[in-house]
Each structure stands twice: as structure tokens, then as C-alpha cells.
Sequence to fold (316 residues):
Amino acid sequence: MDGDVIPRHGLGTAPLGGLFTEVTEDDACATIYAALLAGIRYFDTAPLYGNGLAEARLGATLRESGIARDQVSISTKVGRVLVPGIDSDSAFRDGSVQRPQFDYSADGIRRSLDESLVRLQTDHIDLVLVHDPDNHESESLATAFPTLIRLRDEGVISAIGVGMNQVAMLTRFAAKANDIGLDYVLAAGRWTLLDRSAGHIGGLLDTCMTNNVRVIIGGVFNSGLLADPSAGATFDYVAADSATISIALKMAAVCNDFNVALTSAALQFPWHHPATTTVLVGARNAAEVQQNQIDAAAQLPDALWPALDACLTGSA
Fold:
């Protein structure tokens, strides 16, 4: 791949698919417009997010905005196809009568991408990520990545990636980057104030640097806890346990001592490793986009970071 196709800052659209709570059409549209107004030109989505709803909302709003397609970068994902039925365990509140079904076959990859192109109202995707292949590593290596290489050669996609919520398999993929055509990894929730696992010496981020794999960091709030460290908050998409909430509260107190927002620290932390090339943040309304922009630009004192590190070691 020649050069970066993904800018430094992006909007994640899982919330626009109704993650945890329903989002109205008006709010979804306003969120995307707020991102564009803020200068964000990278949007990440997936068929999983609202069973196609996030993709459809993103495609319609970008078309309506009049912004030229070559002025924005879009990533979507493959590895699930949508089939008739209702997923009663879904975290998305989208009212869909479709459900996702894992499929990493060549036909499944092409079908998923074809349907995404229709929903996104475009003829190409800048980055396609193999999505959550936790239980499908061998099939991804045998069929998903080779299929994406062919699609890249055909010009349908510009770059190939893999997105997961774990580091072990991502690290194995990054180590094989040249063989499987890997350009990007998206690590969700694994390089945050609360979870440093991607940054272990010789681990994911170091492997990506060695193999020239670009790194998108998502889930900087660990699905909610670092945005609102309180009882009932979510950590990695489930209710946070008391020990994790306690650490987050200590971090919030440290930030308060420095007169900065915990959300500012969470948004800026990923840049502490040179492998990071993009930070991806979700939002469900325009106000969240605007606040994220303020937090990401805030000036933070150097002494803040070791004080936050101490919260993890118990020496705070």
C-alpha cells in the first residue's frame, strides 16, 4: 500500500446503529454532520452495527452532505453476513428483523462487501477489516485475507485490515503482515488508560511497528467506563466490576487534581506509543462529537501521566 488511506482522527459509528440505546435518524445525521464540521474525514462502520443501519445512515448522510467521495475515508468490516431473523442477545437497539451470522468464506466476504457498498452508496471502500475472527483464525488466513487481496488488486478496496478486542491474535496477524497483505489493525479497548495490553514490550504495537502495519486505536473509553466512571457503567460492553470501577474512579480523582477531564486523558493516551496512527471515537449525537473535539485538543500536563499510571500499580 502506498501511503496512508486513513487520517489521524475518525468517527466510530457503532452508536449510530443503536448500540445499547436507540439513536434517532435525526441524531445520527446530526452526529455525522458535526464530525464533518469538525474536520473529521474518516468514518468507521460495519454490517454488525445495527444490522446494516449504521452503514445505511452513514452512506445517506455523506451523500446528502455533498462532500466529494475522495475527500472522506470509509472503513467497514467483513466476517459476518446478515440473514433473516432476530438476535435476542444483540447489544443493538435497531428494530431489525435481520441478524448477523459469521462467514469468513470467499463468497461470504464478497457478499458482505457487496451489500455494504449498496448501503454506503459508494463503489469502493478505503479500508476493509476482517471483523472479530476470534474463533475463525485459520479460515481467515485461508480465505478471508486472500479474498481481500484480490479485491484490493481489483480496486474495490484500497487497504486491508483486521479489527478485534484482543491482542494475541492481532499480534499473530501483524507478524504475518507481508504474507497476508495486512495494512492496518484496529485494536479496540486494548490500548487505553485502563488496559495497556497492546503496549507490552514485544507485543502488538511493537510488532506492528516492526512490520509496517498501521494501528487504529478504538474503544478509548472502554465502552463507557472512562467516560462516566460510576456504578452501572460498561467496560468492554458488559457491566464493569467493582475493582475496575475503583481504578477508574482513582483516575478521575487524579485528573480532577490536575484540573483536567478524564475523557481528555482517555482520548490523548493512545498517542503515547508511536505505532498509533489513528484514534477512532464513537458518538451518538452532535454534542458528544463537539465535546470529544474539545477533550482531544486540551493541553495536559506531563506530570499527569505518571500519576495515572500509578492508579494501575496501586501506588496512587
User: Anything to note?
Assistant: The radius of gyration is 19 Å. The chain has one domain: 9-223+269-313.
